[in-house]
Design a protein that fits this description.
The protein is mostly beta strands and 158 residues long. It has 1 helix and 12 strands; from the N terminus they run E-E-E-E-E-E-E-E-E-H-E-E-E.
């Protein structure tokens, strides 16, 4: 299987229960999530991150959303074809996501530490070859402090 990655930065002071990144299936491609690396940074480089507890939920979406803002899917092996799945950082109308209780995976971490989730914990999370299936990365921390953003790196296999 071919492997790809993308990096997405959330908006600053992201509201609670707001998605900031999506990995979506397409009519021609589905796959599985392989790795998630997540942290928090202050938008001013010389300013320290506030110490607080973060939580990001992974939630399966049930609609395609409209007018996505795609991000570059990087090939982890240059010999692989262009990625078929879509990595998105915004939508005019986001895909429908469930409440926090329906998150299939929750990533708690401290803002000053970050987290790296390897494939062994994610290997069962598949996305089908349909435009209405995908994962939303959702802020479940409460509103982020002013000038703070999530930095997300994720990798998938098709």
């Amino acid at each position: 299987m071919a492997r790809y990655s993308a990096t997405i930065t959330s908006s600053a002071a992201l509201a609670d229960d707001t998605a900031f990144a999506w990995l979506m299936g397409t009519a021609s491609a589905g796959g599985k999530l392989r790795r998630v690396i997540l942290g928090v940074r202050h938008t001013t480089a010389a300013t320290a991150v506030t110490d607080f507890q973060c939580k990001v939920g992974l939630n399966r979406v049930t609609s395609a959303g409209t007018t996505p803002t795609g991000v570059t899917a990087n090939k982890l092996d240059a010999r692989h074809p262009t990625a078929g799945m879509a990595a998105d950082s915004a939508f005019a109308t986001p895909p429908t996501q469930g409440a926090e209780a329906t998150d299939f995976f929750t990533i708690p971490f401290n803002a000053k530490s970050g987290v790296d989730i390897p494939a062994e914990f994610l290997e069962e999370y598949w996305i089908d070859r349909v435009t209405t299936d995908g994962f939303a990365f959702v802020n479940r921390s409460g509103a982020l402090p002013a000038s703070h953003v999530f930095e997300l790196f994720f990798a998938w296999e098709e």
